[in-house]
Design a protein that fits this description.
About 35% of the residues lie in helices and about 15% in strands. It has 13 helices and 13 strands. The longest helix is centred in the first third of the chain and has 19 residues, at about 60-75. It folds into two domains: about 5-235 and about 335-355, Aldolase class I (TIM Barrel); about 240-325, no CATH class.
Length: about 350
Amino acid sequence: MGSLPVFKIGDLEINLIQGGMSVGVSGRHLVSAVANEGGAGIIGGVALGLLHGYSGNYAKGNARALRDEIRAVRKMSDGVIGVNLMKALTDYESLAEAAVEEEVDLVINGAGLPLDFPKFLKGGKTKSGVIVSSLRAARLITRRWEKRYSMIPDVFIVEGSKAGGHLGFAHDDLVSGATPSLEAITRDVVEYANGFDRPVVAAGGIYNGGDIKRAREWGAAGVQMATRFVATRECDAHDNFKNEHLRADEKDIVLISSPVGMPGRAILNPFLERVIEGKRYDFNCRWKCLRTCDSNKSQYCIIDALVNAARGNLDKGFAFAGSNAYRSTSENCLDSDGKFISVKTLMERLGDEYEMGG
């Protein structure tokens, strides 16, 4: 039986990073299962208060729910766990404070430049990860951290254009194919990060063990994977959400313009078809969760849509997914009893694929 190579982020030893999928996709069950198999299990840290029924002050509810989720995972695993946070969130600071105070092993920052994240660390045990889509972004963050905080990110996660969810590239470049390859960005950032003795992790379109092997050939220490973990038994999303991956053809994986103000990649369904046709869904903005969202101009509330999807109501939401989501089929994601495979089984398969090169 094959196994994935282990790499280090500071004193943390892991075999991969499971991408943090919000809202409610990578929660306590998926995260603890990945951590128990030697990976870094990453909680999707967006809008957990809404997902778990907190009302009133949503920012406080989100931070409280995040603490609850971290503590629940700790009871289920003594492995490496972390939180994925979007810099674009209006409650980003309270979530960052909560994650660090709960002493998660790793906070991964995306959807914006986390130029002042080190102020939350205060010499604690939590390691810092930044998602970048260019060498320029890696340099900008590093220079700011060095100058203001005498720190450098503990790990650079290079996310290419084939990732799911919100993407750090211009929409027109994604459509035209003008974005640089993951290999090219990874090699650039590896050369840069080597000067600081920091690992680089490749992400976006990583689907099997062969992809992991290729990423290591580019100089990456390891990979971050998200999409392939959706169609597993422990994934916290409803089975209806998981089945979206099984039913999707390659043509169903589409680019959308998100209310966040960034392009995103998702699985086309009737909800999104209506959005593309110009329909506006009526909604009440309970709190301005994203700095860049204008609720007066948005066609729908993205948090509502993602919560609905995670709960299985795809008539009122949709599933974000990476470009390879269509490769998840009943043949490779279901066991002989017709149930979703376990994370343990998936990790074993990834190890075998890595050994075989694909």
